[in-house]
Design goal:
Length: about 170
């Protein structure tokens, strides 16, 4: 994770790092409770105490010496707040870039009807393509090339052949 231009061994996607962050937050809260009971000499003393708490948290979370690498000296509370915001922004950015995957398979529904899969292995008759015949009118020239009108030449033979196919 890169915080304020410095790279640290911490990942918002690593469960062990998140456990370490939770533990550091709990210790910082306990130290904050102790700090609030301490006698303070003024506002500057309160801010320095809060800076020390945050620096301890950064060192525990990001590794020993992290607060020094980030340029924190314990006197500038604003710098501590900027580092805290940078950590939050980096964690949110990393988490939103990740898409969670589950072990469940994607369930798909069949929306199209099965129309004829397979090539006859399931003992179905393979449909033959429909051949479109040229429709010849009774007064058109006969397609056999005789030069006669269709009704006077081959029409009777073709009608008999069609009746024979339809009866079979």
């Amino acid at each position: 994770m890169i915080i304020c231009g410095q790279e640290f061994e911490f990942s918002a996607l690593n469960a062990n790092d998140l456990d370490r962050m939770d533990a550091a937050q709990q210790r910082m809260q306990a130290a904050s409770d102790r700090e609030s009971k301490r006698a303070h000499t003024g506002t500057a003393d309160i801010l320095r105490g809060q800076c020390r708490l945050m620096m301890g948290y950064f060192d525990e979370l990001l590794g020993e010496g992290a607060s020094e690498r980030l340029g924190l000296d314990g006197n500038n509370f604003g710098a501590c707040v900027r580092v805290t915001n940078a950590i939050k922004e980096e964690i949110v950015r990393r988490v939103f870039l990740v898409r969670l995957r589950t072990n469940e398979e994607v369930k798909r529904e069949r929306v199209a009807k099965i129309t004829g899969e397979g090539g006859g292995g399931d003992k179905t008759v393979k449909r033959q393509p429909v051949v479109k015949k040229i429709k010849v009118g009774p007064n058109d020239p006969c397609p056999c090339g005789s030069g006669k009108k269709y009704k006077k030449c081959c029409r009777d033979k073709d009608l008999a052949a069609e009746r024979g196919q339809n009866n079979a």
